[in-house]
Amino acid sequence: MKNLFAALCALLLPLLASAQFSLTGKITDQQTGEALPGATITINSLAISVTSNAGGNYAFKNLKSGNYTVAVSYIGYKTAQSNVSLTANSSADVSLTRSSTLTDEITVSATRASAKSPTAFTNINKQEIAKNNTGRGFEYLLEQTQSTVVSSNGGTGIGYTSIRVRGSDATRVNVTVNGIPINDAESQGSYFVNLPDLASSVKSIQVQRGVGTSTNGAGAFGASVNVETNTRMDTAYAEINSSAGSYGTLKNTLSLGTGLLGGHFSVDGRLSKINTNGYIDRAKADLRSFFVSAAYYGKKNVLRLNVFSGHEKTYQAWNGVPEDSVNAGNRRYNEVGYIASTNKFYNNQTDNYTQNHYQLLYDHQLSDAFSFSGAVHYTKGYGYYEEYKNDQAVIKYGLTPVVIGGMAITNTDLVRQLWLNNDFYGVTYNLKYNPNNKFTAILGGAYNEYKGAHYDNLQWTQQSVNITPGYEYSRNDARKTDFNVFGRAEWNVGDVLLYGDLQYRRINYSFLGFDRDLKNVQQQSIMNFVNPKVGATYDVTDNSNIYASLAIGNREPNRNDFTNSSPASRPKSENMKDFEAGYRYSAQNFSAGINGFYMLYKNQLVLTGSLNDVGGAIRTNIDDSYRAGVEVNGSVRITPQLRWAANATLSTNKVKNFTQYLYNYDTGALVATPYAKTDLAYSPTFTGASTISYQPIKNTEIAFISKYVGMQYLDNTSTQSRSLPRYFVNDVRVNYNFSLAGVKNIGLGLLVNNIFSAKYLSDGATYPSLAGGQVYNYNYFFTQAPANFLASVNIKF
C-alpha cells in the first residue's frame, strides 16, 4: 500500500505543479446590456461548466495554459461560442442575442425548481445520463442521488425495477415526462419497464425530494421526478448503441435525426430492443420500444409531436426468493409457476404489457414578458399477466361444480390471465410571466381522465368445468378525473428570493367496491386538496445561499384501498407537512450542500395485517408518523483529471402507536400487538453514494461507483428477524471515446456491477403469522447478482 501511495503521488505531483490560471467574465443581453444570471458557461474539451451568478458573472479557476472553446447558453438566447488562448489570468465577457426561434425548455420549466428555489433538488444532464445508460431500468439513473434506494426484481437491473426516496416507494414519487403525468392513476406507481430505454431519448432529469414544487398528477411525498425528452438538434445525426453482458443481456439502440431543416423543422427517432435471462431463475425479460418526435420551430412558437411506445414480456420474478432458500445458499430460486402435479414450472408464467404515448406540445412567446406552454396527451395501455394456479376451488371463479361419473369436480389446477385495458388522456398548461430577472410568476395546471377495465379470464383447466378458453369470470371498470390548478411566484428582493406556491387539486374516482350492506356495487369518491408552499432563499455570497421552506401535500388512497373497503372502513387521504432548510455552495472545482428535512405525516397509510369489514387486507391510517434527517452532498475536482462526488443521508423514520395484527392459524382470529414507537418500514437510517472519476488520458474516464444502504425493516415493528441487512456495493465504469474518418465519435464502455460480488438483498417482503404459539415470518427477498458486466459500443455519425 505504501508503494502504491507513493506511485500515485508521483503520478499526480506533475499535474499539481503545472501552471494554472483563471478565466472570468460577465454574461449580458446584447440589446439591453442587462446581466443574465443562470447562464451556463461550458469548456467542452474539459467537460466542465459553471453558472453565472446574480450579477451575470462567472469564473473558471485552476485552468492550465492552452486554447479553449467556451460555449455560453441561456434559455431564449442563441448559444455563443468563443475561442480563448489562456497564458495568464484572463477575462472574457459575452453578450448574447435573443434567439429568432423559440426553444423547448419552457415546456418543463413550470414544474421544475429554479436554481435558487428553496427546496432540495438534483439536476441530471444529458452527459451524465449517457454515461450510465447501459440498458438497466430508468431508476438506476437516479441511484446516486441523495436518499435513494433502487432495486431489481430479476437481480440484474433489467425488467421490473423500483425506487424509494427517503423511504417512500414509487406510489409516493410523482413522475412527469414533459410535464405530463406518468404515474398509474389507480395504483399510483410508475412502471418504467413499460418504457424500456426511455433514457436514450431523455435530455435532462430533475429530482425534487419531499413535496417539492406543484406538479401534475399524483401527489409527491417522497419525491417528484421531472423528465424532459430530447429537444432540438441543429445538425443531422445517426447513432448506434449496443451493449452485451452477463446473464444473456443484450441491448441494441438505433437513433436518427434530420437536424434543423429549412430553419424550422426537425424529425428524430429511436428504436430499441433489450433482452436478458435475469439472475433469478426464469427472470427473463424481452423489452422493445420506439420514440419518434417531429417539431416545428417558429419565431414565436414551437409545436412538437412525440409518439413513443414500449412493450414488455417478463417472467414473473416479483415474489422474490424465499428466506429458506437464501439461507440454504440458493439465491436464485423462483417458486412462482410451480406445478405440483408434475414437479415442474409453468413456462408461460409471464407479464405482458404494451403502453403507447402520444404528446402534442405547444410553446408560444406571447411577448417579451409572457410565454405559454400547453400539451394534449393520450396514453393507451393494455396487457395481462398469466399464471398457473394449483388446486383452485371452482366456486371462486363463479362456476358450479361439474358432476362427472357421480363425482363433483370442486377443485382443479388452472391457468388464468388477469387483464388491464386502460386509457389516459388530458391537457396540461402553464402561463409564465417574466418581466425581468427579478420576478417570475407561473399559472399552471392540468385536467386528466382515466378509464381502466379490469377483467380476468380462465385459459385452461385440468379438470373439465364446462367452459371454453377465454372464459371471463370477473370484470370491473374504473374511471378517474384529476383536475389541478396552481400559481407560483419567485421574487428577488436584494439578496433574498421570496417563494410562494398554491395548488388546488380535485379527484373524482369511480370504482367497483362494497356498499354499506357489503354488496359489490360501483362506488364513487370525491376528494379536494389544497397544497400551499412558502419559502425564502438568501444569497450569502455570489456562490452560496441558504434557504428554508414549508410545503403541505395531500394524497388520495390507491385502488386497493378503495376496492377492498366499504364506506364504513374506507381510509382517509394522507397529509404531510414538509419542512426543508439548507445551505448550497457552488464553484467551478468545488460544490457542496447540506439539507435538513422534517416530514410530519397525518393519516399515513400503512399495512398492519388487519382485515376490514369485507375481509380484505387493508392499509390503515396512522395518526402520527414522521421522517427527519440531514442530507449532505459534495463534489470536488482534486486535479484537472481527478474528481470525487459523494452524498449521504442520516435520518430517523418513526411511527407512533402502531398496532400489528397477526393471523392465528390455530384459532382463525387476528392477534393484536401494540407498539409505542417503531421504525417505518423500508427506511434505512443511513444511505450514502460515492463516485470517484479519473481521466488518465484525453477522452477516457474510469469511475469507481459505490452505494451504501443501511438496515431496513420489512414491516413497522422494528423486528430484527424481519429486516434487510445493510449492504455496500461497488461498480466500475470505463469509457473511452475517439473518432475516425467519417465517424463523429466511437465510444467504448465497460460497466462491471457489484465488482466484489457482495451477497446483498436490495428489497423484500414479509408475511408473518401465528401457529402453535409461534410466529412464522415467511420472508421473501430480492437477491442481486454477483459480479456481472455490460460492455458497450456507441457509434455516432
From TrEMBL:
Occurrences of domain TonB-dependent receptor-like beta-barrel (ranges): 303-755
Domain TonB-dependent receptor plug: 116-223
Bilayer disposition of the protein: Multi-pass membrane protein
InterPro entries: Beta-barrel_TonB, Beta-barrel_TonB_sf, Carb-bd-like_fold, Plug_dom, Plug_dom_sf, TonB-dep_rcpt-like
Record Gene3D superfamilies: Carboxypeptidase-like, regulatory domain, TonB-dependent receptor, beta-barrel domain, TonB-dependent receptor, plug domain
Family assignment from sequence similarity: Belongs to the TonB-dependent receptor family.
PANTHER family with a match to the protein in the record: FERRICHROME IRON RECEPTOR-RELATED, FERRICHROME OUTER MEMBRANE TRANSPORTER_PHAGE RECEPTOR
Name of protein: TonB-dependent receptor
